[in-house]
Amino acid sequence: MKLLILNGPNLDMLGVREPQIYGTLTLDEINENIKSSFSNKEVEFEFFQSNSEGELIDKIHETHCSDIDGIVYNPGAHTHYSYALRDAISSVSTPVIEVHISDIKTREDFRRKSVLSPACECQISGLGKDSYTKAVETFLNNEGDVLWKRSVKTDDEIEVLKEAQKIADRAFLAMLEQVKEGMTELEVRDILEGFMLEFGAESFSFPTIVGTGANGANPHAEPGDQKLKHGDSVVIDFGVVYKGLCSDTTRTLFVGTPRGELYRAWLAVKDAHETVAREVKIGMTGKQCHDRSIEVINDYGFKGCMPHGLGHGVGRDIHEKPVLSPRCSAKLTKNNVITIEPGVYKASKFGIRLEDCGVLTENGFESFTTLTHDLIVI
Q1: Choosing a second label site near 18 at 20 to 30 A (CA), which of 46, 65, 207, 276?
Q2: Per-residue model confidence as pLDDT tens digits over 248-300
Q3: Is 366 labeled as catalytic in the residue annotation?
Q4: Residue 300 backbone dihedrals phi, psi, to 5 degrees
Q5: Catalytic: which of 31, 75, 78, 98?
Q6: Is 107 assigned a catalytic role?
Q7: What are the two backbone dihedrals, phi and then psi, of residue 282, each rounded to the nearest 5 degrees?
Q8: What sign for the dihedral angle of Cα 13, 16, 22, 27?
Q9: C-beta neighbour count of 180 within 10 angstroms
Q10: Could you tell me which residues are beta bridge partners of residue 123?
Protein backbone atom coordinates (compact mmCIF):
# COMPACT_ATOMS: atom_id res chain seq x y z
CA MET A 1 0.00 0.00 0.00
CA LYS A 2 1.16 3.52 -0.79
CA LEU A 3 -0.20 6.53 1.10
CA LEU A 4 0.21 10.24 0.47
CA ILE A 5 0.66 12.31 3.65
CA LEU A 6 -0.60 15.71 2.58
CA ASN A 7 -0.30 18.90 4.63
CA GLY A 8 -1.75 22.30 3.93
CA PRO A 9 -0.93 25.93 4.80
CA ASN A 10 1.15 26.92 7.84
CA LEU A 11 1.94 23.32 8.78
CA ASP A 12 5.53 23.93 7.70
CA MET A 13 5.66 26.15 10.81
CA LEU A 14 4.89 23.35 13.26
CA GLY A 15 7.24 23.46 16.25
CA VAL A 16 7.18 27.25 16.13
CA ARG A 17 3.51 28.01 15.55
CA GLU A 18 1.45 28.14 18.78
CA PRO A 19 3.13 25.14 20.46
CA GLN A 20 0.54 25.21 23.26
CA ILE A 21 -2.04 24.13 20.63
CA TYR A 22 -0.04 22.28 17.97
CA GLY A 23 2.83 20.87 20.04
CA THR A 24 6.58 21.26 19.70
CA LEU A 25 7.26 18.70 16.97
CA THR A 26 8.20 19.98 13.53
CA LEU A 27 6.51 18.64 10.42
CA ASP A 28 9.67 16.73 9.54
CA GLU A 29 9.62 15.10 12.99
CA ILE A 30 5.96 14.15 12.57
CA ASN A 31 6.74 12.60 9.18
CA GLU A 32 9.63 10.64 10.69
CA ASN A 33 7.30 9.41 13.45
CA ILE A 34 4.86 8.16 10.82
CA LYS A 35 7.60 6.25 8.99
CA SER A 36 9.04 4.71 12.15
CA SER A 37 5.60 3.75 13.50
CA PHE A 38 4.93 1.57 10.45
CA SER A 39 8.44 0.39 9.60
CA ASN A 40 7.34 -3.22 10.02
CA LYS A 41 4.25 -2.84 7.79
CA GLU A 42 3.98 -3.18 4.04
CA VAL A 43 3.25 0.50 3.46
CA GLU A 44 5.10 3.20 1.53
CA PHE A 45 4.72 6.92 2.19
CA GLU A 46 4.96 10.02 0.04
CA PHE A 47 5.04 13.39 1.86
CA PHE A 48 3.91 16.74 0.46
CA GLN A 49 3.21 20.13 2.04
CA SER A 50 2.22 23.41 0.44
CA ASN A 51 0.86 26.80 1.43
CA SER A 52 -0.74 27.13 -2.01
CA GLU A 53 -4.32 25.98 -2.58
CA GLY A 54 -3.61 25.40 -6.26
CA GLU A 55 -0.60 23.17 -5.60
CA LEU A 56 -2.63 21.10 -3.17
CA ILE A 57 -5.44 20.71 -5.71
CA ASP A 58 -2.93 19.61 -8.34
CA LYS A 59 -1.41 17.09 -5.95
CA ILE A 60 -4.81 15.58 -5.18
CA HIS A 61 -5.61 15.40 -8.90
CA GLU A 62 -2.33 13.55 -9.53
CA THR A 63 -3.44 10.68 -7.31
CA HIS A 64 -6.29 9.75 -9.64
CA CYS A 65 -5.36 6.51 -11.45
CA SER A 66 -1.92 6.64 -9.78
CA ASP A 67 -0.28 4.14 -7.45
CA ILE A 68 -1.49 6.11 -4.40
CA ASP A 69 -3.98 4.00 -2.44
CA GLY A 70 -5.09 6.70 -0.02
CA ILE A 71 -4.45 10.22 1.28
CA VAL A 72 -3.95 11.29 4.90
CA TYR A 73 -4.71 15.00 4.67
CA ASN A 74 -4.30 17.82 7.18
CA PRO A 75 -5.81 20.76 5.28
CA GLY A 76 -4.98 23.37 7.92
CA ALA A 77 -7.28 26.39 7.72
CA HIS A 78 -8.44 25.32 4.25
CA THR A 79 -10.73 22.84 5.97
CA HIS A 80 -13.06 25.62 7.06
CA TYR A 81 -13.73 27.30 3.72
CA SER A 82 -12.06 25.74 0.66
CA TYR A 83 -14.81 24.33 -1.52
CA ALA A 84 -12.23 24.11 -4.29
CA LEU A 85 -10.31 21.51 -2.28
CA ARG A 86 -13.53 19.73 -1.42
CA ASP A 87 -14.29 19.51 -5.15
CA ALA A 88 -10.77 18.20 -5.78
CA ILE A 89 -11.29 15.40 -3.26
CA SER A 90 -14.68 14.55 -4.76
CA SER A 91 -13.26 14.50 -8.29
CA VAL A 92 -10.80 11.64 -7.68
CA SER A 93 -11.40 8.03 -6.70
CA THR A 94 -8.60 8.09 -4.10
CA PRO A 95 -10.03 7.83 -0.56
CA VAL A 96 -9.07 10.66 1.81
CA ILE A 97 -8.97 10.75 5.61
CA GLU A 98 -8.97 14.26 7.05
CA VAL A 99 -6.76 14.79 10.11
CA HIS A 100 -6.13 17.64 12.55
CA ILE A 101 -3.59 17.92 15.35
CA SER A 102 -5.93 19.88 17.59
CA ASP A 103 -9.56 19.09 18.35
CA ILE A 104 -11.29 21.52 16.02
CA LYS A 105 -14.68 20.84 17.61
CA THR A 106 -13.59 22.50 20.85
CA ARG A 107 -11.95 25.58 19.35
CA GLU A 108 -13.24 28.88 17.97
CA ASP A 109 -16.62 28.76 16.23
CA PHE A 110 -15.16 29.30 12.76
CA ARG A 111 -12.81 26.33 13.22
CA ARG A 112 -15.51 23.87 14.19
CA LYS A 113 -16.93 23.43 10.69
CA SER A 114 -15.17 21.40 8.02
CA VAL A 115 -16.41 21.84 4.49
CA LEU A 116 -14.09 19.00 3.42
CA SER A 117 -15.46 16.28 5.71
CA PRO A 118 -18.44 15.31 3.51
CA ALA A 119 -16.01 14.38 0.73
CA CYS A 120 -13.68 12.39 3.01
CA GLU A 121 -13.95 8.89 4.42
CA CYS A 122 -13.74 10.21 7.98
CA GLN A 123 -12.14 12.88 10.18
CA ILE A 124 -9.62 12.22 12.97
CA SER A 125 -8.67 15.15 15.21
CA GLY A 126 -7.36 16.09 18.62
CA LEU A 127 -4.71 13.37 18.95
CA GLY A 128 -1.65 15.48 18.18
CA LYS A 129 0.89 13.60 16.05
CA ASP A 130 -1.15 10.45 16.63
CA SER A 131 -3.97 11.82 14.47
CA TYR A 132 -1.74 10.93 11.51
CA THR A 133 -0.85 7.45 12.75
CA LYS A 134 -4.49 6.72 13.60
CA ALA A 135 -5.41 7.60 10.01
CA VAL A 136 -2.72 5.30 8.64
CA GLU A 137 -3.99 2.52 10.92
CA THR A 138 -7.48 3.07 9.53
CA PHE A 139 -6.17 2.48 6.02
CA LEU A 140 -4.35 -0.64 7.17
CA ASN A 141 -7.10 -2.12 9.34
CA ASN A 142 -9.06 -5.31 8.85
CA GLU A 143 -6.07 -7.61 8.46
CA GLY A 144 -4.36 -5.49 5.85
CA ASP A 145 -7.34 -5.01 3.59
CA VAL A 146 -8.75 -1.51 3.27
CA LEU A 147 -12.30 -1.13 4.53
CA TRP A 148 -13.36 2.46 3.81
CA LYS A 149 -15.59 4.16 6.32
CA ARG A 150 -18.11 4.83 3.56
CA SER A 151 -18.81 1.08 3.41
CA VAL A 152 -20.40 1.38 6.87
CA LYS A 153 -23.65 3.17 6.22
CA THR A 154 -25.36 5.57 8.60
CA ASP A 155 -28.96 5.03 9.65
CA ASP A 156 -30.01 7.91 7.41
CA GLU A 157 -28.20 6.39 4.43
CA ILE A 158 -29.88 3.05 5.04
CA GLU A 159 -33.31 4.69 5.01
CA VAL A 160 -32.53 6.37 1.67
CA LEU A 161 -31.29 3.06 0.25
CA LYS A 162 -34.55 1.42 1.31
CA GLU A 163 -36.51 4.14 -0.47
CA ALA A 164 -34.40 3.63 -3.59
CA GLN A 165 -35.23 -0.07 -3.47
CA LYS A 166 -38.95 0.67 -3.15
CA ILE A 167 -38.79 2.65 -6.39
CA ALA A 168 -36.99 -0.17 -8.17
CA ASP A 169 -39.35 -2.84 -6.80
CA ARG A 170 -42.42 -0.88 -7.83
CA ALA A 171 -41.05 -0.31 -11.32
CA PHE A 172 -40.25 -4.01 -11.78
CA LEU A 173 -43.75 -5.08 -10.77
CA ALA A 174 -45.29 -2.52 -13.13
CA MET A 175 -43.06 -3.81 -15.94
CA LEU A 176 -44.19 -7.40 -15.30
CA GLU A 177 -47.75 -6.41 -16.15
CA GLN A 178 -46.62 -5.45 -19.66
CA VAL A 179 -43.77 -7.78 -20.59
CA LYS A 180 -44.68 -10.70 -22.85
CA GLU A 181 -43.27 -13.23 -25.26
CA GLY A 182 -42.11 -11.70 -28.53
CA MET A 183 -40.87 -8.43 -27.04
CA THR A 184 -37.25 -7.48 -27.63
CA GLU A 185 -34.72 -6.99 -24.85
CA LEU A 186 -34.64 -3.28 -25.68
CA GLU A 187 -38.40 -3.00 -25.36
CA VAL A 188 -38.29 -4.62 -21.91
CA ARG A 189 -35.48 -2.30 -20.84
CA ASP A 190 -37.34 0.80 -22.03
CA ILE A 191 -40.51 -0.16 -20.17
CA LEU A 192 -38.61 -0.81 -16.93
CA GLU A 193 -36.51 2.35 -17.13
CA GLY A 194 -39.61 4.41 -17.92
CA PHE A 195 -41.33 3.20 -14.76
CA MET A 196 -38.18 3.77 -12.65
CA LEU A 197 -38.10 7.43 -13.72
CA GLU A 198 -41.85 7.81 -13.33
CA PHE A 199 -41.75 6.49 -9.77
CA GLY A 200 -39.00 8.87 -8.59
CA ALA A 201 -35.55 7.70 -9.72
CA GLU A 202 -33.09 10.52 -10.32
CA SER A 203 -31.21 8.31 -12.78
CA PHE A 204 -30.06 4.71 -13.16
CA SER A 205 -27.31 3.07 -11.09
CA PHE A 206 -25.87 1.50 -14.25
CA PRO A 207 -27.04 0.65 -17.78
CA THR A 208 -29.94 -1.77 -17.34
CA ILE A 209 -29.10 -5.36 -18.30
CA VAL A 210 -31.66 -7.47 -20.15
CA GLY A 211 -30.37 -10.76 -21.54
CA THR A 212 -32.63 -13.49 -22.92
CA GLY A 213 -31.69 -16.99 -24.02
CA ALA A 214 -28.03 -17.33 -24.98
CA ASN A 215 -27.51 -13.59 -24.43
CA GLY A 216 -28.28 -14.13 -20.74
CA ALA A 217 -25.17 -16.31 -20.46
CA ASN A 218 -23.20 -13.04 -20.50
CA PRO A 219 -23.38 -11.59 -16.95
CA HIS A 220 -23.05 -8.08 -18.44
CA ALA A 221 -25.36 -8.56 -21.42
CA GLU A 222 -26.32 -5.45 -23.36
CA PRO A 223 -29.97 -5.48 -24.47
CA GLY A 224 -30.57 -5.69 -28.20
CA ASP A 225 -33.14 -6.85 -30.74
CA GLN A 226 -33.25 -10.45 -29.53
CA LYS A 227 -36.84 -11.45 -28.79
CA LEU A 228 -38.17 -13.25 -25.74
CA LYS A 229 -39.28 -16.72 -26.81
CA HIS A 230 -40.82 -19.76 -25.16
CA GLY A 231 -38.34 -21.83 -23.16
CA ASP A 232 -35.93 -18.96 -22.50
CA SER A 233 -34.80 -17.36 -19.27
CA VAL A 234 -34.50 -13.56 -19.15
CA VAL A 235 -31.94 -11.97 -16.81
CA ILE A 236 -32.87 -8.41 -15.78
CA ASP A 237 -30.35 -6.45 -13.68
CA PHE A 238 -31.46 -2.93 -12.77
CA GLY A 239 -31.03 -0.11 -10.27
CA VAL A 240 -31.96 3.47 -9.51
CA VAL A 241 -30.19 6.47 -8.05
CA TYR A 242 -32.25 8.23 -5.38
CA LYS A 243 -30.93 11.12 -3.29
CA GLY A 244 -27.43 10.23 -4.49
CA LEU A 245 -27.53 6.57 -3.42
CA CYS A 246 -27.90 3.44 -5.55
CA SER A 247 -30.05 0.34 -5.60
CA ASP A 248 -29.13 -2.95 -7.30
CA THR A 249 -31.42 -5.90 -8.07
CA THR A 250 -31.53 -8.84 -10.45
CA ARG A 251 -34.47 -11.09 -11.23
CA THR A 252 -34.73 -13.85 -13.83
CA LEU A 253 -37.97 -14.33 -15.75
CA PHE A 254 -38.96 -17.50 -17.58
CA VAL A 255 -40.94 -17.56 -20.81
CA GLY A 256 -42.95 -20.63 -19.97
CA THR A 257 -42.31 -22.98 -17.05
CA PRO A 258 -38.63 -24.02 -17.04
CA ARG A 259 -37.75 -27.70 -17.44
CA GLY A 260 -34.72 -29.95 -17.09
CA GLU A 261 -31.31 -28.27 -16.76
CA LEU A 262 -32.80 -24.79 -16.80
CA TYR A 263 -35.01 -25.59 -13.82
CA ARG A 264 -32.15 -27.26 -11.92
CA ALA A 265 -30.01 -24.18 -12.50
CA TRP A 266 -32.78 -22.00 -11.10
CA LEU A 267 -33.00 -24.19 -7.99
CA ALA A 268 -29.20 -23.98 -7.59
CA VAL A 269 -29.16 -20.18 -7.78
CA LYS A 270 -32.11 -19.76 -5.44
CA ASP A 271 -30.62 -22.18 -2.90
CA ALA A 272 -27.18 -20.52 -3.09
CA HIS A 273 -28.70 -17.08 -2.58
CA GLU A 274 -30.91 -18.06 0.34
CA THR A 275 -28.17 -20.13 1.99
CA VAL A 276 -25.74 -17.21 2.05
CA ALA A 277 -28.47 -14.72 3.06
CA ARG A 278 -29.33 -16.99 5.97
CA GLU A 279 -25.74 -17.71 7.07
CA VAL A 280 -23.88 -14.44 6.47
CA LYS A 281 -22.94 -12.59 9.64
CA ILE A 282 -20.64 -9.90 10.98
CA GLY A 283 -17.03 -11.09 10.99
CA MET A 284 -17.30 -13.36 7.96
CA THR A 285 -15.01 -12.54 5.06
CA GLY A 286 -16.07 -11.82 1.50
CA LYS A 287 -14.24 -14.98 0.45
CA GLN A 288 -16.18 -17.13 2.92
CA CYS A 289 -19.49 -15.83 1.57
CA HIS A 290 -18.46 -16.42 -2.04
CA ASP A 291 -17.10 -19.89 -1.34
CA ARG A 292 -20.33 -20.90 0.42
CA SER A 293 -22.38 -19.98 -2.64
CA ILE A 294 -20.05 -21.97 -4.88
CA GLU A 295 -20.42 -25.03 -2.63
CA VAL A 296 -24.18 -24.95 -3.10
CA ILE A 297 -24.00 -24.40 -6.86
CA ASN A 298 -21.47 -27.22 -7.23
CA ASP A 299 -23.77 -29.58 -5.33
CA TYR A 300 -26.36 -29.09 -8.08
CA GLY A 301 -23.84 -30.06 -10.75
CA PHE A 302 -22.94 -26.60 -12.05
CA LYS A 303 -19.26 -26.45 -11.16
CA GLY A 304 -17.45 -23.62 -12.97
CA CYS A 305 -20.68 -21.95 -14.04
CA MET A 306 -20.42 -18.79 -11.88
CA PRO A 307 -17.60 -16.63 -13.31
CA HIS A 308 -18.13 -13.59 -11.07
CA GLY A 309 -17.95 -12.74 -7.39
CA LEU A 310 -20.97 -13.27 -5.15
CA GLY A 311 -21.55 -9.59 -4.45
CA HIS A 312 -20.30 -6.13 -3.56
CA GLY A 313 -20.97 -3.06 -1.49
CA VAL A 314 -23.48 -0.45 -2.68
CA GLY A 315 -23.85 3.22 -1.78
CA ARG A 316 -22.80 6.40 -3.52
CA ASP A 317 -21.30 4.15 -6.18
CA ILE A 318 -22.82 0.95 -7.51
CA HIS A 319 -19.63 -0.96 -6.65
CA GLU A 320 -18.06 -0.20 -3.28
CA LYS A 321 -16.30 -1.99 -0.46
CA PRO A 322 -16.73 -4.65 0.80
CA VAL A 323 -16.38 -7.19 -2.00
CA LEU A 324 -17.69 -10.75 -1.73
CA SER A 325 -15.15 -12.50 -3.91
CA PRO A 326 -12.55 -15.30 -3.76
CA ARG A 327 -9.74 -12.79 -3.20
CA CYS A 328 -11.36 -10.77 -0.41
CA SER A 329 -10.16 -11.41 3.14
CA ALA A 330 -11.88 -8.28 4.47
CA LYS A 331 -14.29 -8.95 7.31
CA LEU A 332 -17.87 -7.80 7.03
CA THR A 333 -19.08 -5.42 9.69
CA LYS A 334 -22.34 -3.98 10.95
CA ASN A 335 -24.15 -1.66 8.52
CA ASN A 336 -22.28 -2.90 5.46
CA VAL A 337 -24.74 -2.68 2.58
CA ILE A 338 -24.05 -5.59 0.22
CA THR A 339 -25.50 -7.51 -2.68
CA ILE A 340 -25.93 -11.27 -2.79
CA GLU A 341 -26.11 -12.28 -6.45
CA PRO A 342 -25.19 -15.87 -7.30
CA GLY A 343 -25.67 -17.01 -10.88
CA VAL A 344 -25.38 -19.93 -13.24
CA TYR A 345 -24.37 -19.32 -16.85
CA LYS A 346 -24.23 -21.90 -19.63
CA ALA A 347 -22.53 -20.60 -22.77
CA SER A 348 -24.81 -20.47 -25.84
CA LYS A 349 -27.75 -21.61 -23.70
CA PHE A 350 -28.93 -19.46 -20.80
CA GLY A 351 -28.13 -17.39 -17.75
CA ILE A 352 -29.81 -17.16 -14.35
CA ARG A 353 -29.07 -14.69 -11.55
CA LEU A 354 -30.91 -13.75 -8.35
CA GLU A 355 -29.77 -10.58 -6.58
CA ASP A 356 -30.94 -8.74 -3.49
CA CYS A 357 -29.31 -5.72 -1.89
CA GLY A 358 -29.52 -5.30 1.87
CA VAL A 359 -27.80 -4.37 5.11
CA LEU A 360 -25.81 -6.56 7.48
CA THR A 361 -27.08 -6.18 11.03
CA GLU A 362 -26.34 -7.92 14.31
CA ASN A 363 -29.17 -10.29 13.41
CA GLY A 364 -27.83 -11.06 9.93
CA PHE A 365 -28.71 -9.95 6.41
CA GLU A 366 -31.78 -7.72 6.00
CA SER A 367 -32.82 -7.47 2.35
CA PHE A 368 -34.16 -4.13 1.13
CA THR A 369 -36.27 -5.70 -1.61
CA THR A 370 -39.73 -7.20 -1.28
CA LEU A 371 -39.66 -8.91 -4.68
CA THR A 372 -40.33 -12.64 -4.70
CA HIS A 373 -37.73 -15.40 -4.85
CA ASP A 374 -40.32 -17.70 -6.44
CA LEU A 375 -40.36 -18.59 -10.14
CA ILE A 376 -41.54 -15.69 -12.29
CA VAL A 377 -43.14 -17.14 -15.40
CA ILE A 378 -44.56 -14.96 -18.18
Answers
A1: 46
A2: 999 999 999 999 999 999 999 999 999 999 999 999 999 999 999 999 999 99
A3: no
A4: -90, 0
A5: 98
A6: yes
A7: -55, 135
A8: positive
A9: 12
A10: 98
CA-wise closest residue to 150 among 270, 315, 6, 338 = 315
Q: Known catalytic residue: 164? A: no
DSSP string, 289-331: HHHHHHHHHHHTT-TT---S-SEEE-SSSSSEEEEESTT--PB
Among this protein's residues, is 100 annotated catalytic?
yes
Backbone angles phi, psi at 343, to 5 degrees: -150, 160
Whether 22 is catalytic is yes
> H helices of 199-259, where?
none
Known catalytic membership, residue 111:
no
Q: Which residues in the chain belong to E strands, given as ranges? A: 2-7, 44-49, 70-74, 96-100, 122-125, 203-204, 209-212, 233-238, 240-242, 245-246, 249-254, 311-313, 320-324, 337-340, 343-346, 350-353, 356-361, 364-367, 376-377
d(CA 353, CA 293): 12
Whether residue 19 lies in the annotated active site: no
Catalytic: which of 18, 61, 77, 84? Answer: 77
Count of alpha carbons within 13 Å of 69, Cβ hemisphere only?
Answer: 16
Query: Which residues pair with residue 3 across a beta bridge?
Result: 45, 70
Q: How far, in Å, CA of 266 to CA of 254, rounded?
A: 10
Is 40 catalytic? The answer is no
Question: Residue 149: pLDDT band by 50, 70, 90 thresholds?
Answer: low
Question: How far is Cα 123 from Cα 117, in angstroms, rounded to an integer?
Answer: 7
Instruction: Convert the pLDDT of each residue in 322-370 to its tens digit.
Output: 889 887 777 899 999 999 999 999 999 999 999 999 999 999 999 999 9
Distance CA 255, CA 258 (A): 8
Please pick, among 7, 31, 73, 74, the residue that the annotation labels catalytic: 74
* The pLDDT of residue 147 is above 60: no
Q: Which of 66, 65, 86 is nearest to 75 (CA)?
A: 86
Active-site entry in 80, 107, 264, 308: 107
Q: How many CA atoms lie less than 13 Å away from 12 in the CB half-sphere? A: 8
